[in-house]
Amino acid sequence: MEHIIDPKFFCCKKLTFAVPCYNHENYISECLDSILAQELNVPFDILVCDDASTDNTPNVLREYLRKYPDKIKVIFLEKNGGNLHTLNTLFNHIKSEYFYVVDSDDYLLGTHFVQKALDFLETHPDYTMYGGNCFFFKQGRIKGCYLSKMVLGLSFSWSDVCKLHVCFYPQTSCILYRNVIFSNGATNEFLQAEDDFVHFVYRGESMRIIKHLQKGNIFIPSDNVSVYRVHEGGILRGKSLITGFIRQVYVLLHLSRIFPDYKNFYESLFFFHYPRVLKAIYKNRANPNYLRQEDCDLLKEIYRLLPTANLDWSKFKWHSSILVKCFYKARTYAWLLCRQIHRILSRKRIV
């Protein structure tokens, strides 16, 4: 691991922008330029952690280091450790009162949102997050927004998780955090998750939001504050859409187990996304290359957890004709559903 950071660099900084990065030579400049363009009334720094990129990303970062030595610092990892390890490395170095995570393939819009967020949190000590909406960027153009309009302009607390049936979690590059969880570095919970399937739960924004919600509230204004680039090389999306869907299902299943008091919320989201995975597997059952080994391993883990998850299968959505055909008999009996899933997965040599 190559550290080139003087501890004095972080002294007296109010805000740190944390940028996890891997093989984003085509996007990292736009990301960093959008951060540098922010008009702020407080001292801030930009901390990038490069996860042993194999493309030209390190050279691009070194050029930014040369141009902005007082603003940007970079940690170059010698060995690829995955997104959660990269984030934990960043959290271990953040000493500021506030932090803002920006994925290296995303970019911020405008120049005033972060200062607006800071002003809000400074005057609302019972809030730990201020997060806006973002645009999707797919296939070379903007395609819709991340959050539903029904959650914009509202505040939410941890107790709201069990009351609502709509997700109010902003996307990663839309949230300013009060540093109440990682003030002493990455927690043991996050560090221990690096070497297991559970790292999928901790590598995205969901668990960060949950931990901060347990310490305070979040306000979500109506601002569109960033652009979320959806592509096969994305940090969380993975190599294909089905990979992203499988990871999302696993995360929701695991969250329903970690937080039993809020199981209703995560269970509802699980049953919304789970049919998409099953439908995709069934429709592509003749394609032996549709699922990668990583997808198969995670599906096996999901299948292992399902029988003991104590889910309310009455919430399973039967709107898909394919699912009706394949799983109709299992509508009442969870064990029969699992058996039908097992048959399909067996044909794919997953179980």
Question: Any overview of this molecule?
Answer:
This protein is an alpha/beta fold and 351 residues long. The protein folds into 2 domains: 2-229, Alpha-Beta Complex (Spore Coat Polysaccharide Biosynthesis Protein SpsA, Chain A), CATH 3.90.550.10; 241-347, no CATH class. Helix content is 38%, strand content 17%. It has helices at 28-36, 57-67, 83-93, 113-123, 188-192, 199-203, 205-213, 241-258, 263-283, 293-305, 321-327, 334-347, and strands at residues 2-3, 15-21, 44-50, 72-76, 98-101, 107-108, 127-131, 133-138, 141-145, 154-156, 175-178, 217-220, 224-229. The strands form 2 sheets. A 9-stranded mixed sheet has the order 1-4-3-2-5-11-7-12-10, with helices on both faces. The protein is globular and about 55 Å long. The model is unreliable at 319-336 (pLDDT under 50).
Q: How many structurally independent domains? A: 2
Q: Strand order, main sheet: write it out.
A: 1-4-3-2-5-11-7-12-10
Q: How is the main sheet built?
A: 9 strands, mixed
Q: Helix-strand pattern, N to C? A: EEHEHEHEEHEEEEEHHHEEHHHHH
The CATH topology of the largest domain, please? Answer: Spore Coat Polysaccharide Biosynthesis Protein SpsA, Chain A
CATH H-level name of the largest domain... which superfamily?
A: Spore Coat Polysaccharide Biosynthesis Protein SpsA, Chain A
Instruction: Give me the count of strands.
Output: 13
Q: Mean pLDDT score, rounded?
A: 84
Q: What low-confidence regions span 5 or more consecutive residues with pLDDT below 50?
A: 319-336
Q: Summarize the amount of helix as a percent range.
A: 25-40%
Q: Tell me the β content.
A: 15-25%
Classification by helices and strands = alpha/beta
Helices, by number, come to 12
Oligomer: single chain
Question: Mind telling me the CATH class of the largest domain?
Answer: Alpha Beta
What Rg is obtained from the alpha carbons, in whole angstroms?
Answer: 21 Å
**Overall 3D shape:** globular
How far apart lie the N and C ends?
A: 38 Å
CATH architecture of the largest domain: Alpha-Beta Complex
